[in-house]
Design goal:
- The protein is built from two helices and twelve strands, in the order αβββββββββββαβ.
- By secondary structure, the chain is of the alpha+beta class.
- The protein has a twelve-stranded antiparallel barrel.
- A hairpin with a 2-residue loop joins strand 8 and strand 9.
- The protein is flat.
- The termini are far apart.
Length: 308
Amino acid sequence: MKKLLFFAVLCLSISMVNAQTKEELQAKKSEKQAEADAAQAEADKLQAQIDALPGWRVGAFGTIGGSLSGFNNWYAQGAPNNNSGNIGFTVNAYANLIQEKFFWRNALTTNLNWVKLDNKDVDTDNDSFEPTTDVFNISSLYGRNIAKNLAASALLEYRTTLLDNFNDPGYLDLGVGATWTPITNLVVVIHPLNYNFVFADNDAVFDSSMGAKIVADYSRQIGAINFKTNFSTFQSYKSGDLSNWTWTNSFSYTLWKMIGVGFDFGLRSNKQEALNFALAQDPATATGFDDVDNDLQSYWTFGLSYKF
C-alpha cells in the first residue's frame, strides 16, 4: 500500500513539474512573440517612411505553373497513348519615379500559357505546345501634382498578344485628364479625352474611336504576401460596341526565401474580339455586333511564384 501511495505521489509530482514547465515555456513564447510583433510594427513604420521618400521604386513578381504527363495503354481514357503538358508564367513589373511635384509610373503585365496534347495513335495530330492564354500589357503614366492627392496626367497604354496574331488586334490608348491617389498604393486614372487606336487586319470589325479611359490600380506587399489588381476600361463615345474592359489580379505568397505559390486570374469584355472570333468560326452566322453574344472572357494560372 505504501509503495502504491508513493508511486501515485511521484506521478502527480512529475505531472505538476511538466505542467509548470509547459506554462513557463508558453509564457516565454508569448513574451518573445510580443517583442517580435513590436519589432515588426516598427519595421513597417520605417518602410512606410522609406516608401514616402522621392526617387525610383522598382520591383517585380511572377508565377510559374506547369505539368507534364504521359500514358501508355491507359484504356480508361479515350486516348490511351498520349503525352500532354501545360506550361505558363506571369510577370508583374513596375518602375515608378515619385517626386515632390510630379510622378512617372511604368508597368508591365504579361501572362503566357502553352498546352500540348499528343495522341501517339494519331500521326496527323499536332504534337507541339500550342499557345492558349496570351496577355501582354504595358503602360506609362505621367502626372504633375496640382493638389495633395490630385494630378493632371497623360497616359499611354498598349495591349496585345505576343504568341499568336501579334498586334492583330493591338490596342493603343493615348489620353489626358486627372489622376487621383486617395490612399497609398491606389492609383485612379480618369481621362475623358482619350483616343483608342485599334490595329487589326479586319477593318470591318475593329475600329478606332474617341472615348473616356478609366484605370484603377492597387499594388501592395504585406509581409510575405504580394498582390496587384488592375481594372482598365475604355468607353467609346462613338458606339458602345467599341467599348471594352479588362480586370487582372495577381497574388503570391512567399514560402521560402524568394520562392512561394502564386495565383493569377483575369476577366475581360470586348465585343469586337467576340465578333472577330465568331466570323473566323462561321462567317455565315455572324454579320454584325447584334449577331454575337459578348460572353465574359476569363483566364487563371496557379503554380510556383518567384519574387524578383
